[in-house]
Amino acid sequence: MPAQTELVAQLNDSSFANVWQELKWRGLIQVSTDEQALETLLSAGPVTFYCGFDPTAPSLHLGNLVQLLTMRRLQLAGHRPLGLVGGSTGLVGDPRPTAERTMNTKETVGEWVGYLQSQVQRFLSFEGTNAARMVNNLDWTAPMSAIDFLRDIGKHYRVGTMIKKDIVASRLNSDEGISYAEFSYQILQGMDFLELFRSYGCVLQQGGSDQWGNLTSGTELIRKVEGKAVHAIGTPLITNADGTKFGKSEGNAIWLDAAMCSPYEMYQFWLNTADTDVIDRLKVFTFLGRAEIEELAQAVAERPHTREAQRQLAFDVTALVHGVDATQKVIAASAALFGQGELGKLDRDTLEAATRELPRAMISDDSMGIIDLLVASGLAASNSAARRTVAEGGAYINNVKFTDPEAVLTTADLLHGRFLLVRRGKRTLAMVEVAAG
Question: What Rg do the C-alpha atoms of the chain give, in angstroms?
Answer without folding.
Answer: 26
